[in-house]
Amino acid sequence: MAKNPVIDILFESLTESTQENQILYRKIARNYDKSYKSLSLLAPTTLANTVSEYFSASGRNSKDLYTLDVCSGTGLCGEALRKVEWLGVIDGVDGCKEMLEVAQTKGIYRTLYHQLISAESPLPIQNSSYDLVTCTGGLSFGHLPYQCLEMLLDILVPGGLLAINVSSYKNPGSDVKYQESVEKTMKQLLGKCTLVKEVRVDVVKDDTRYSHGIEYEQILCYQKDA
After folding, report:
1. Other beta carbons within 10 Å of 167
2. Quick one: pLDDT at residue 17?
3. Beta carbons of 223 and 164 less than 8 angstroms apart
4. Phi and psi dihedrals of 146, rounded to 5?
5. Deepest of 19, 124, 187, 210, by most Cβ within 10 A of its Cβ?
6. In this predicted structure, what is the pLDDT of residue 152?
7. What is the mean pLDDT of residues 173-180?
C-alpha cells in the first residue's frame, strides 16, 4: 500500500469541526500539491474534462463563461481547467488563507475569497453570477456543510452547471453519513436542477485512499433549471 504522510494525516486527523480542520490545512498547505499529485488523484482532472466536454457539446465557448471554484484550496481544480484550455474567468473561495496563498501564485484566479462557507456565513456573491460552480474535495466530512448546496445552485445563472465530486466509502461511519446527506439534499433540489452527467472513478487498492475506506469517486454535474 502506497504511503503518503500528508494525505494520511488528513484522513487520520480530520474532525467534525470545520474550524479545527482549517488549522490542519494551514500546517500542510505548502506541501499539499506535491502530496496530492504524487497519488495521481483524478478528481480535478476528471471534473475539468467532464465540464469542458459538456459545454463544448452545447456549443458554448469557455472564454465567455464565469466559474467559481468552491473550496478551491491550492488551486488544483483551477489548474485542471486551464489544462483543458478553459479560457474564461475563474474565481475561487476557501476557508484557509495559507492554501489560497499557494493558489494565488499560479496566476489562474481573478479573485480569491477567503471565507469559511456555512449557512450562517453565506458567500459574498450575488445570485445568478456564474455559469459554472465547481467543488472537488470540499463535499466531505468536516468540510463544506451539505446544507450549502442550495446556496451553490443559487449563484448559478439559469442553465448553469454545478459540478461536484463525492466519495463512496466501503464501511459505515461519519463520512458515509455525510455522503448520504449530500445525496439526499441533491435529490430534494431536483426541482431546481437536473442531473446531466455522472462519471465514476474507481480507487485502486494500492492508493492510500483505499486504506482509508474510499472505494470510488463520482463526478456529478447538475444543470440549474431555467
Report:
1. 24
2. 65
3. no
4. -65, -20
5. 210
6. 94
7. 69
For the chain, the residue count is 226
Superfamily of the domain at 5-224: Vaccinia Virus protein VP39 (3.40.50.150)
C-alpha cell at 8: 494520511
Among 81-90, 122-131, 134-143, 177-186, which is the least confidently predicted range?
Answer: 134-143
Instruction: Tell me the CA distances in angstroms from 63 to 119, 123, 135, 222, one per residue in order.
Output: 32, 24, 20, 21
In whole angstroms, what is the distance from residue 67 CA to residue 225 CA?
A: 18
**Cell digits of residue 187:** 435529490
State yes or no: pLDDT of 214 exceeds 90: no
Grid coordinates representing 171 are 464501511
Instruction: Name the nearest CA neighbour of 167 among 176, 155, 158.
Output: 176
Write down the domain spans for the chain.
5-224
Distance separating alpha carbons of residues 23 and 26, to the nearest angstrom = 5
Q: SS3 letters for the chain?
A: CCCCHHHHHHHHHCCCCHHHHHHHHHHHHHHHHHHHHHCCCCHHHHHHHHHHHHHHHCCCCHHHCEEEEECCCCCHHHHHHHHCCCCCEEEEEECCHHHHHHHHCCCCCCCEEECCCCCCCCCCCCCCCEEEEEECCCCCCCCCCHHHHHHHHHCEEEEEEEEEEEEEECCCCHHHHHHHHHHHHHHHHHHCEEEEEEEEEECCCCCHHHHCCEEEEEEEEEEECC
CA distance linking residue 48 with residue 28, whole number of Å: 25
Question: Mind listing the pLDDT tens digit for each residue in 56-115?
Answer: 999 999 999 999 999 999 999 999 999 999 999 999 999 889 989 999 999 999 999 999
